Amino acid sequence: MVKGVVQLKSSFYGRVGFLSFIHGLDHAFLMFSSPLLILILRDLDLDYAALGTLVSVAFFTYGIGALPAGFLSDRLGHKWTITAAIALASLGALVGGLPGSYPTLAVSFFLIGLGTSLYHPPAMALLAHISTPENRGLAMGLHGVGSNLVMVAAPALAGGIATILHWRAAFLFWGLVGLAAAAVFWRLFESTGSPSNTEPGPLAGLAAILQDRDLVHTLLIVFLLTGIQGFIWSGTFAYMATYLQDVRNMTVAVSGILAGIQYGVGALGHLVGGYMADRNSRILPVVIGTTGALIGFGLILLPSNAALLIGIFILGFSLFVKQPAMNTLLADAVPKEVHGRLYGVFFIITNTIGALAPMFGGLIIGRFSFTAFFLLCSAITFGAYPLILLMRSALTAREASPRTP
After folding, report:
1. Which of these, 209, 251, 248, 309, lies nearest to 36 by C-alpha position?
2. Cβ distance 94 to 109 under 8 Å?
3. How confident is the prediction along the chain (405 residues), in pLDDT tens digits per residue?
4. Number of separate domains in the chain
5. For the chain, which terminal residue's Cβ has fewer other Cβ atoms within 10 angstroms, N or C?
């Protein structure tokens, strides 16, 4: 077991609250550039395919880095991995603020993706370690609430800075904020140390899981559901601000504010989803989020501005309400000793499939329209319903023959 978690003499809520702020910065690095994409496209004379590829560099790297991050979390501890995550992403943002061309931005997005990829496996493992099955959904939800509150500011601040100064200034701003946050985190948190005197191999502790066919079946459903969530989440937030600017004729600042509002509503989604996961059912938030996303996609495509605003609110809530339940389903199913590695698998699936969304989105938008892309997102979202039914059956079967993770 991992020894000592934090140096802070804080409560459960204090620990989760501080981690939620760092979580927000991790996501802010990926999302602050969303209202800047149209400016980058025009400034560098790009097409949507090139722009989508640029964004996919960050999301793809964000995905593939999750698996080694999970192993590092189990082997080296949480402090080193989380600090490295924020510091490396900050460096990437600073590179984006330097004078340069498309290759410079590609390096920037690569470093941002690599840095942010290191955060989630150790953070989820740490949350699972300091929580109990009775408050685990709440811990995951609060962790998301704080992150959304930070993300509310990210696109709005970036859009405002770009309007007053330049889009590169927004990159510099978030790079400096991230370095300061990494330094504070390093000062406040103790080193967790290695879980034991023996260095665990990548497959250590996984043999028993692989021999449990019912558990493997449950994990497979969770991984498929999170893959769908990754594509929809990344596609929506990568192109929402650009859609508002290019199709709905909104300014960079206004689109950034509306994108920020989506994250703000998502904070409520995190809180409600975590509460329902603990008090009602792990499945209910997933059903609500899937249904709400379908409604939201339909509304944002209507010509009415009122329908657009309602759709933005519903999408913001729906894309976040199911995340605490998804995280909790995985934590419930497996032993703490392998949380880091299995969260690594969880997030490499989420983020790698999510990385395809900006790339395919750029191709579809460039060749067809934003409407075609959002309809594709709706079709993929609908595919979650059969998996939800399978998950419900799997959980019922496991409750009938309880296992101790």
Report:
1. 251
2. no
3. 334 344 444 567 777 777 888 888 888 888 788 788 888 888 888 887 788 788 778 877 877 777 777 677 767 777 788 888 999 999 999 998 888 788 888 999 999 989 998 888 788 777 777 777 677 777 777 777 777 777 777 877 888 888 888 889 999 999 999 999 888 888 776 665 454 544 455 555 566 666 667 777 778 888 888 889 889 888 887 788 888 888 888 887 787 778 777 777 888 888 888 888 777 778 888 899 999 999 999 999 999 989 999 999 999 899 888 888 887 777 777 666 666 677 777 777 877 787 788 778 888 888 888 999 999 999 999 998 998 888 887 777 666 555 544
4. 1
5. N
Does any domain span residue 5?
no
Instruction: Let me know if residue 6 belongs to a domain.
Output: no
Q: Is 198 among the domain residues? A: no
The pTM score is 0.67
- Domain assignment of residue 320, given as a range: 12-193+204-400
Based on the number of CB atoms within 10 Å of its own CB, is 201 exposed (0-12), middle (13-18) or buried (19 or more)? exposed
Whether 345 maps to a domain, the answer reads: yes
Q: Is 11 left (phi over 0), alpha (psi -120 to 50) or beta?
A: beta
